[in-house]
Amino acid sequence: MNTELIKQDYLNNKKLNDNELLLLFENILDHILRQNTFDNTLKSFYNYRNYKIIKKMFFERGFCITEELETKIQRVYDIELKLIKKESKISLNLGIFCVIFGAVYYILFQNEFGRAPFLFIVSLICLGGILVFRGISNLSK
Length: 141
Description:
The chain has 141 residues and is mainly α. Helices cover 77% and strands 0% of the residues. The protein has two domains: 1-64, no CATH class; 86-141. The longest helix is centred in the middle third of the chain and has 42 residues, at 67-108. The chain crosses the membrane at residues 90-109, 115-136. Keywords: Membrane, Transmembrane, Transmembrane helix.
């Protein structure tokens, strides 16, 4: 079967049969292993979002996994783990920066400019807290 036609069927939200889904999953695994990373663009087929959706569909159908396929899945899982750790660290660091910047800004300009900076500081600290929580929760997955 032609994988390009199967990709088009998937992108057009057509229901895939078991053989098509297996070929599509193996194709995406092979491409990720060749590139050693996911594609970063949304227009690309081999991005992390499509991989997650296809992986979920694959495991929901309960396929029998061969040893070769299991080793591919494990190697792609390691690549996926690196990507999640990288995104989580970025979120965590950005959140910590927002909290620290908000606290310093509050200490320096506590009574200087009225109420508007106080609202900015509170929203900055809240945003930082959300980013820190998101980074920690993604790392714990």
